[in-house]
Write a structure and sequence with these properties.
Strand content: 5-15%
Distance between the termini: 74 Å
CATH superfamily of one domain: Glutamyl-trna Synthetase, Domain 2
Largest sheet: 3 strands, parallel
Number of strands: 12
Mean pLDDT: 95
Low-confidence stretches: none
Structural class: alpha/beta
């Protein structure tokens, strides 16, 4: 059977890294198996769902390259299909109307908790042979409840958690349609997974409690459930569940902060899956290696310092022309328009940067006036070095503007003044780049224009 996986987010808040990992693994499994990946938007919570949240889901997945083969499907557009299946279930006696009010349910729960029993619906309105049901109250619209099997267990072999067995006596009769006829989450999910022929459901372990209920609905409808893999929670740096409330950022913010999509995929892949000791790998390697047998059972903790390190490794390995495109986008946000020098600037500075924003900070110094680091200026820009800086500026006025010619001019200045390299290079770096901490002086100056260098040296 062809593998078919899905990502089914609720657009009730922006999508963060904990959510997007639940898209990455089913996407990767489908791609690694030559299968299909389906995107489904579970938007039945009308009060909390928003188009803005949908946009962030679509934008974040597109940025990370998590392309879907089918969808996005929207549950609110499938209501007729759900009602059709509900009608079939009514005919088959798989559901029944329940007239118990919210107040009656609350009182029932209070009694059960006082008796130290698990709070659950007691089957008051469940029709059974020989049972007399209560009088139907006037003017009350019932909910529809699913006739959960009595006795026995729901068992499945979870690809992460192993064998899970839940007694049916632990499960009450689930509400699958509200008084206005609107179907509920657990019912819609099953109909969707059947219609979309989903073979593997890879999702967060906050859904484990839903799974036995969904399996029973699958079987009532004459279908075998998919294979399940319930992923452990992603924790934030404080050890709390990653969420908007706990300070999680939208996935798209990482793009603004200068992270590479392939680095994000690499980092997210390692938050719950491993391939030996491999830390840095390409998207192609990830898809070649990925399987469900090496998913971790423990909660993974987000570490921004580790993410920055992974991003730095991917930046170093990235072709300079491709990196320059991303840096140019960062520069243009600042109103800076670069030129043909940008790929070479990226090549020179990328080893000391861990985001494209940091690389753009360096690149901007070649296109805009620099602000000197006050502490370094006070330390290096002394009266004693002024004559040497003036001499170097004079020597750089003529001759070819190449790294080799600039290096020779620096050496001649050192010979003429008797200074050591750091005594001249540090003040020149501060004057030209605003800081004494740069790559090789001749390489930096060669990437500036002659006019820039002379103007900045003469400003001393």
């Amino acid at each position: 059977m062809k593998v078919r996986t899905r990502f089914a987010p609720s657009p009730t808040g922006f999508i963060h890294l904990g959510n997007i990992r639940s898209a990455l693994y089913p996407w990767a499994f489908a791609r690694s198996q030559g299968g299909d990946f389906i995107l489904r938007i579970e938007d039945t919570d009308l009060e909390r769902s928003s188009q803005a949240a949908v946009d962030v889901i679509l934008e974040g997945m597109a940025w990370l390259g998590l392309d879907h083969d089918e969808g996005p499907f929207y549950q609110m557009q499938r209501m007729d299909r759900y009602r059709e299946v509900l009608a079939q279930m009514k005919e088959q006696g798989l559901v029944y109307p329940c007239y118990m009010s919210v107040e009656e349910l609350d009182k029932l729960r209070e009694r059960q908790m006082a008796n130290k029993e698990k709070p659950r619906y007691d089957g008051t309105w469940r029709p059974e042979p020989g049972k007399t049901l209560p009088q139907v109250p006037e003017g009350v619209q019932p909910v529809l409840r699913f006739r959960n099997p009595i006795g026995g267990s729901v068992v499945w072999d979870d690809k992460v958690k192993g064998r899970i067995e839940i007694s049916n006596d632990e499960l009450d009769d689930l509400v699958i349609a509200r008084p206005d006829g609107t179907p509920t989450y657990n019912f819609c999910v099953v109909v969707d997974d059947i219609d979309m022929q989903i073979t593997h459901v890879i999702r967060g372990d906050d859904h484990v409690n839903n799974t036995p209920r969904q399996i029973n609905i699958f079987r009532a409808l004459g279908k075998e459930p998919p294979v399940y893999a319930h992923l452990p929670t992603v924790l934030n740096e404080q050890g709390e569940k990653m969420s908007k409330r706990n300070g999680a950022k939208p996935v798209t913010q990482y793009r603004e902060e200068g992270y590479l999509p392939d680095a994000m995929v690499n980092y997210l892949a390692r938050l719950g899956w491993s391939h030996g000791d491999d830390e840095i790998f390409s998207r192609e390697q990830f898809l070649q290696w990925f399987d469900l047998d090496h998913l971790g059972r423990s909660a993974a903790q987000f570490d921004e310092a580790k993410l920055r390190w992974v991003n730095a490794q991917h930046m170093k390995a990235m072709p300079d022309d491709a990196l320059a495109v991303l840096v140019e986008a960062q520069l243009k946000k600042r109103g800076v328009t670069p030129d043909v020098r940008l790929p070479a600037i990226c090549a020179l500075f990328k080893d000391r940067c861990d985001t494209t924003v940091m690389l753009a900070d360096w690149a901007a110094r070649f296109y805009t006036p620099v602000e000197r680091n006050a502490e370094e200026a006070a330390k290096h820009l002394t009266d004693a070095v002024k004559p040497a800086v003036s001499m170097l500026a004079k020597m750089l006025e003529g001759g070819p503007w190449t790294k080799e010619a600039i290096a020779e001019s620096v050496k001649e200045t050192l010979r003429a003044t008797g200074l050591k390299m750091p005594q001249l290079a540090m003040p020149v770096r501060v004057l030209v780049m605003g800081t004494a901490q740069t790559p090789s002086l001749d390489a930096v100056l060669a990437l500036c224009t002659r006019e820039q260098v002379l103007q900045r040296l003469r400003a001393f």
